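Justification of resources, computational component.

The compute hours requested in this renewal are based largely on the per-chain cost of generating structure records like the one below. Each record pairs the submitted sequence with a full structure-token output. That output is archived, and it is also reused by downstream analysis tasks.
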Amino acid sequence: MAKASSKGMLVWLGLAFFILIADQATKLTILNIYRHGEGTVITSFFNLVRVHNTGAAFSFLANAGGWQRWFFTTVGVGAAIFIVWMLRSHHGQKLFAFALACILGGAVGNVIDRLVHGYVVDMFDFHFNFLRPVFAGGHFPAFNIADAAITVGAISLILDEILRVRRSR
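The structure output for this chain reads:
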């Protein structure tokens, strides 16, 4: 039984590792091509940019003086440990485990950035006129593959819970 449990968990850890590698490869590419603040217009609504985020989502606490680097690193490491523990016992719940694997891969990718650079490297810059009332120039805050994976994971967790509640009725 332990081997089946380990095998099931390895699938999800493999997905998390794939997300981590894709995230780190794109960040390394951006770091090698662009200087901080530089970018390239790709379409009328999308740019590739190099942005350094010392805070969390939407640059929350970005100007907090440096302590946030270690706080968010600690939170990310704690989340990764908790997620691995959860995957160990819930790897058979496909949507739930998928969500956890996405969050794990993203969290570890951003923790690596904080440890190596002191900031998270962001690169995807989407901008739309309808966002102007909320975001400067209509630019949604730049993000990376890790952020996207965490978002997909969070949405999947919500969907999993909605489906779980519906099944229990």
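DSSP finds four helices and three strands in the chain. The beta strands are 39-41, 46-53, 120-126.
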